[in-house]
Structure formats: C-alpha cells, structure tokens
Specification:
By secondary structure, the chain is an alpha/beta fold. It contains 12 helices and 9 strands. Helix 3 (62-75) links the parallel strand 4 and strand 5 (81-84). The radius of gyration is 20 Å and the shape is elongated. It starts with a strand and ends with a helix. The structure holds nicotinamide-adenine-dinucleotide (NAD).
Length: 288
C-alpha cells in the first residue's frame, strides 16, 4: 500500500481520493476549500500533502497546476511520482513535467474521461503521457480509480489525446442535436429517427449512449432536465483548449472552432450549469 498525496478534492478529486482510501492506501488530502473526504487525512498545505511517494493533482486549470507544482516539487521526496489528472493545456502539462524532472521526480499527465459518475464508481478512463517508468508507478492507482488507462506517449500526450477526444465529442453532440432538431421540424418521430440512426452509419456515442432527446435511447441528462453529467462550461473549456493547441501547431480544425463558438454561445445564452447535450435546445430554437 502506498502513501499518496491528493491535491484538489473537488467534484472529481473527492471521490477519486475516497476510492484510493477505500482500497487501503494512506491518502493525505489538501484543498484550498474546506472539503472533507471519507477515509483520508486532511492536511493544511500543499507541501504537507506532497510528502508522499505518489502525488495526484485534480485542479481547475493550467496556471493553478503550475503554481501548485512549484510547491510540490520542493516537498516530494526524490524518486516520487507526480500524477496530474486535471484537464489543462498541453504547454502547462509539459512545463509541469519539466519542473518535476528538474527536482529528480517522475511525472505523468493523466487527464480522465468519465465524469463525476465515473470518478465515484471508479470507472474512469485515464489518458497518460510520460516516461514508461512513471506510467508503471501510476498504473496501479489508475486501476483503483478507473477501468482503463492508455499510455498515449511522452510528456503532454495524455492532454493532447483528451482535447482531441473532447473536440470530436463536441462536434458529434452538435451534429446529433442538429439531426434530431431537423427531424422534428420535418415531422419525424424522434424514437423512429433514433431507431434508424443508432443502427445506421450516423451511429455514435452521442446518439446511441447519450441521446439528447427526452425518453429516447438509454437514460441520459435529457431525461433529467439536462442536469449534468458533463457541464456545458467544461465543454467550453475543453473546446477552447483544443483550439489553442490547434493554433499552436497550425492545425486546421474548422468544425472544432465552430463547435467551440457554439458552446460559448450556449453557455452565454443560459446553458451554464446544464449538461453539454442541452445544446440541442439552442439549436432547435434557432431558425435558419
Ligand atoms: P472542481 O472545481 O469541483 O474541483 C477543483 C478543486 O481544486 C476545488 O475543490 C478547488 O477548491 C481546488 N483548488 C483550486 N485551487 C487550488 C489550489 N491552489 N490548491 C489546492 N486546491 C485547489 O472541479 P472538478 O469538476 O473536480 O474538475 C477538476 C478537473 O477535472 C478539471 O481540470 C476538469 O476540467 C477535469 N474534469 C472534470 C470532469 C467533470 O465532469 N467534472 C470530467 C473530466 C475532467
């Protein structure tokens, strides 16, 4: 069993830390907010939590991760492995890896997919970047907190994979919303349209697993008044990260850019706090 520092005990980090404690690990937790998590020892500073063999961070954004890493690298013992599970920009992820290496520490960027439900159930997917030796140290913890971990490549590769996936998810959810909104305006029964698309070439996760139409397909946020789930403002964050990364490498992503713009419109037009699949309502209300 390992001694694990866990920094950032919010909606995702809290249940992830709880699962590590449940599995018998000693977990030292820290958050700037007053948050208690079952089974873990609360500390009063980053440096106190980082005096551990493995240090996990689950924080809001790149600047915060960089700032917190400034404290972690001074406190973690040489040879410790730092695992950043936050979704952040690739550049900050690489900077965090460099800070760790300069201090004689191993590191992995390991953003997750699966949301709060996956964090609670221990069924997250981890997308990891970093050296083989670092991934090997982190892998047993990924097994506790999730059901799948893919080692995507070197430093920053996990973040790169995450934003490519979420850019595609944003595009496919908007496409799904457009198809069902058009179908409705053409007088189609949404259940019949689902029966066709979910078994035809338009099938995808957004239709088959997460259909944004109430009463159609498996249970999804559409059945709960678009309570998240995965909040629209987090999709704004992820699509903007994808477009910043695309600009940095000169990649053409016209649909990714359009999806980022539409999600920003949705959040500004009342979508904040709703599930990202609720964008169908905005699309359906618009006229050509
Ligand atoms: P959250 O806001 O609930 O949690 C973040 C926590 O970090 C908060 O409790 C906050 O107090 C703490 N924090 C902020 N600054 C800190 C500091 N300097 N030191 C210590 N703690 C600090 O957010 P969340 O939903 O748990 O998301 C965390 C990360 O996971 C984000 O990067 C997000 O994009 C990513 N993510 C979230 C989801 C989701 O569905 N919520 C899904 C996948 C990925």
């Amino acid at each position: 069993m390992s001694r694990i520092g866990f920094i950032g005990l919010g909606n995702m980090g809290g249940p992830m830390a709880a699962n590590l404690a449940k599995a018998g690990h000693e977990v030292l937790g820290f958050d700037v907010a007053d948050i208690n998590v079952d089974g873990i020892a609360r500390t009063t500073s980053v440096t106190e939590a980082a005096a551990a063999d493995l240090v996990i961070t689950m924080l809001p954004d790149g600047p915060i991760v960089r700032a917190v890493y400034g404290d972690i690298v001074r406190a973690a013992p040489v040879g410790a492995c730092l695992i950043d599970c936050s979704t952040i920009d690739v550049e900050s992820a690489r900077a965090a890896h460099e800070m760790a290496a300069d201090a004689g520490l191993l590191s992995v960027d390991a953003p997750v997919s699966g949301g709060v439900g996956g964090a609670t159930a221990g069924t997250l997917t981890f997308m990891a970047g970093g050296a083989d030796a670092a991934f090997a140290l982190a892998a047993p913890l990924f097994d506790v907190m999730g059901q799948r971990a893919v080692h995507c490549g070197e430093a920053g590769a996990g973040q790169a994979a995450k934003i490519c996936n979420n850019m595609l998810l944003a595009i496919s959810m908007i496409g799904t919303g457009e198809a069902f909104a058009l179908g409705q305006k053409l007088g189609l029964d949404p259940q019949k349209l689902f029966d066709v698309i979910s078994t035809s070439s338009g099938h995808c996760w957004s239709v088959n697993t997460y259909c944004p139409v109430k009463g159609v397909g498996p249970e999804s946020p559409a059945d709960k008044d678009f309570k998240p789930g995965f909040a629209a403002e987090l999709m704004v964050k992820d699509t903007q990260l994808s477009q910043n990364a695309a600009s940095a490498v000169g990649a053409s992503t016209p649909l990714g850019q359009h999806a980022a713009d539409l999600y920003l419109d949705f959040v500004k037009a009342g979508g904040k706090g709703k599930d990202f699949s609720g964008i169908i309502e905005m699309l359906a209300q618009r006229s050509r």
